[in-house]
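Supplementary Methods. Inverse-folding protocol.

Structures were first reduced to a discrete structure-token string of length 178. This string, shown here, constituted the complete conditioning input.
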């Protein structure tokens, strides 16, 4: 999992005695412009500012994958990225997977394969594996396992998650022509 570090120029100004930067980015297809604290993480920007609570915080150190989102086509851990580093970026969070209220094939397969229990880790797994399937519609089991290694689950076990991803890949190729 790579964390993208290059960011474009952002506009800085003082607001009520505090440094702020104006951030412009696209989140789940929606253009967003906000003034943010330059030290705010992308995770807290998504949760606290945009109220997208699907992205979870656990370790806060880039180790567990709970906060995984897709940024410019790559799965990244949003807890170790500053919001300003996302200037101009295209971001997808778990809220962006369903379309018109219908769960995506990947989400459906997590449910049908019983690939979640408490669900806390699930958004991170969904986003890591979404990025995998976007970049590689026909991954081998070894490639799926390698991606799953970046996300920690304490209750479900990894076999159902791997089966869900494998089955989702099969269905996406068949039903979406990927
Ligand atoms: S909360 Fe970001 S990797 Fe654990
Ligand atoms: S489903 Fe509970 S931590 Fe993964």
């Amino acid at each position: 999992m790579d964390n993208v570090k290059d960011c474009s120029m952002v506009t800085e100004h003082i607001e009520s005695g505090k440094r702020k930067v104006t951030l412009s980015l696209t989140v789940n297809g929606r253009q967003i412009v906000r003034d943010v604290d330059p030290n705010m993480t992308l995770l807290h920007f998504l949760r606290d500012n945009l109220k997208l609570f699907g992205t979870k915080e656990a370790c806060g150190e880039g180790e567990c994958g709970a906060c995984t989102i897709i940024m410019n086509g790559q799965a990244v851990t949003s807890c170790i990225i500053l919001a300003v580093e996302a200037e101009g970026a295209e971001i997808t969070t778990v809220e962006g997977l369903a379309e018109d209220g219908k769960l995506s094939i990947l989400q459906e397969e997590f449910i049908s394969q019983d690939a979640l229990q408490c669900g806390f880790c699930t958004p991170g797994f969904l986003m890591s594996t979404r990025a995998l399937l976007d970049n590689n519609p026909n991954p081998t089991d070894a490639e799926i396992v390698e991606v799953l290694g970046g996300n920690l689950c304490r209750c479900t076990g990894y076999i159902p998650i791997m089966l869900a991803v494998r089955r989702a890949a099969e269905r996406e190729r068949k039903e979406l022509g990927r």
